[in-house]
Every structure is written in structure tokens, then in C-alpha cells.
Amino acid sequence: MSEKVAVVLFNLGGPDCKEAIRPFLLNFFMDKNIIRVPIPFRCLIASMIANKRSKREAGESYGELGDKSPLLENTQAQSDALQKVLPDNYKTFVCMRYWHPMAPQVVREIRNWGADKIVILPLYPQFSTTTTWSSLGVWEKAIHEAGMRDIETSTICCYPVNKGFVKASAENVRQQYDQALKDGYESPRVLFSAHGLPEKVVKDGDPYQWQCEETAKAIANELGIENLDWEICYQSRVGPMKWIGPSTEEAIEKAANEQKAIIILPHAFTQEHVETLVELDIEYKEIAEEHGLKGYYRAQTVGVHPTYIEGMAELVKKHTDKTGVYAEGFESICPSGFSDCCMKKAA
Q1: What are 92-145's pLDDT values in tens digits?
Q2: Helix and strand counts by DSSP (H, E) for the chain
Q3: pLDDT surpasses 70 at 1
Q4: Where are the domains of the chain?
Q5: What class does CATH assign to 163-298?
Q6: Which of 37, 44, 142, 301 is 20 to 30 A from 81 in CA distance terms?
Q7: What is the 3-state secondary structure (H, E, C) of 170-220?
């Protein structure tokens, strides 16, 4: 009889109703990987930000989506698609970091199913201490509290240049690129827009920015367009700290000044949610119009693209026989200067 393998898809999570917006934000900003100050100060800061953003920025953004996030539904769709292409002894589970279903609930479901092994697949292709590492921390706590610390677990910490992910992303960009050419825009610029991070996080050794750059290079190469005009930028800045750049807004303004049409691909997201459906499709589009930019196109995230799902299935199967934390390929892909490489931290 084949061993039963639970495949756990990590994602951020999002509020499922208007009343959940504030507690979701509070969970998010209480994370020590997000607000890196001692807990008494973190409680105060998290409460202040959650109160403010639930009434203003975040509340308005989720209001555009019916006062809720579509992230769970879209992640579940990916889980269902992956389930269909995995062998029968595999079962997929969705685990969110800041809203339900969270780690304790998912661990109970896996225990009740009778899993012999767990494979953890973050839906973040690029590793960051603020995403994958944070989720792993609460996951390990839940596993220990459930008395399952001895279950064999294989964790895929990152896959920024996975062939399925890169090819699916390139296909989505190419659709918009060809449309821009058809609409009469010559040599449109591709903007690879990732969620930003405070500069300090990267300086402290987080490899996220480097991995995002590697993803962008791989997708640009996969497109195979001669003399492709492309840039990397970062969106979703919060708070007064200095963030990595250039910002997506700066990249849009630059393109407008150079009279360039743009295709934006959110290459660090794998499904549609508030940062794509509202921030990119509404807010940044308005910024583009204010700057007189003509030709604003947005490539979809990989979602349930068959090529991406097949890539994830192969990744899971290759990692099933391993125990421990590994990047795709089973060797650390991060240059030596990144002390927060997941494989190094977990060793």
C-alpha cells in the first residue's frame, strides 16, 4: 500500500468578510517577521496600523472586492488543480498564515486523514523571511502541539526559476505583449512588479529581492523577444521605512515620460488577490492615466495555468523522497552573502 502524502500549500490568507479585515491585519502586523520590534511595542504598532488601515486603505481596497479577499478561493482552485494531476496517494491541503484555515486546523485535518508524510509547497516562488519562513515557524509550532513532530516532512523553500512557473508566466506576458503590438504600441516595456520589502530586511540577509530578479531574468529569457525592454519594480509599500526600489509607481512614471506602453506582470504572486485586482488593475492604472501613459496592460498571475500546475506536481513528487528543507534542485541557490537563506537557517 502506498504511503499517504499530504501536500500543504502555504499562502498569506485574507479576510473573508468585512468584520475580518481588522483581525486579519492585526495578525499580519503582529508577526515578528513583519514588525521587527519587541512584543510590547509590536502590539501597539500592530493595533494602530490595523485600526487605521481597516478603516481607510485596506478597507477601501477590500471594498472594491465585496469586503473580502478572493485569495482563499483562488488558492483552493490551485489546490484542486494540483490534486487532479498528483497520484492518488497524495492529498492537497491549503494552509494560510494570517486568516483561516490556519496551521492548527490544517495539522488536525492531516492527522485525521492519516498522513504518513508531509510535503510543504509555499505558493511563494521566491523565499523571504516575511512569508515562507514566517509560515514555517507557526507550522512547526502546530505540528509539535499536535504530537506529530516525528512525521517525515519535506519542505520546498523556493523555486524562483521553476520551468513550469517561468513558462506559464511568459505565456501570460506574451498574450498582453502581442495585444499591445496589435494596438499599435511599438516595443512595449515589461514591468516585473513584486511585492516590496523594507530595505533593512534585505540588508539583513533576506534573499527575496535577488530571487525576484532571477525570476524576472528567467521569464524575460523565456519570452525570446529580441531586444526586449523590461525592468523590475516593487509595489505595496507600507509605512515610513525605506523600501527596496524602484517602486512600481516610479517605473510607471518613467515609462510615461518615455512614451512607452507597459505590460505589468506581478511575478512574485501566483494567484489573483487584492494586490493585483485592486492595486494593479485599479490604483496603478489610475496613476498611469494621471501621468499620461498610453497603453497599460496587465498580465495575469499563473493561477491554475496547466503548465504551472504540472511544474508544481513534478516539484512535489521530486521532493517526496527527501526529508528536510530544500530549494528546487536540493542545493542552496542563494549567493553566500544571504545569511537568511532558508536552507542555511534550517540547517
Answers
A1: 999 999 999 999 999 999 999 999 999 999 999 999 999 999 999 999 999 999
A2: 14, 9
A3: no
A4: 5-160+307-346, 163-298
A5: alpha beta
A6: 142
A7: HHHHHHHHHHHHHCCCCCCEEEEEEECCEHHHHHCCCCHHHHHHHHHHHHH
Residue 24 pLDDT > 90, yes or no?
yes
Write the DSSP string, 252-286.
HHHHHHTT--EEEE-TT-SS--HIIIIIIIIIIHH
Sign of the CA dihedral with 338 first, then 344, 345, and 346 last: positive
Tell me which residue of 325, 346, 342, 345 sits closest to 207, measured CA to CA.
Answer: 342
Q: What is the per-residue pLDDT across 257-266, written as a single tens digit (0 to 9) for each?
A: 999 999 999 9
pLDDT confidence tier of residue 54, bands split at 50, 70 and 90: confident
CA distance 29 to 119: 28
Could you please report the per-residue DSSP string of 73-97?
HHHHHHHHHHHHHS-TTEEEEEEES
> Taking the mean position of all CA atoms in its chain, how far away is CA 73?
15
Write out the CATH class of domain 5-160+307-346: alpha beta
Q: Which residue, among 272, 279, 234, has the nearest Cα to 123 in the 3D structure? A: 272
Per-residue model confidence as pLDDT tens digits over 239-259: 778 999 999 999 999 999 999
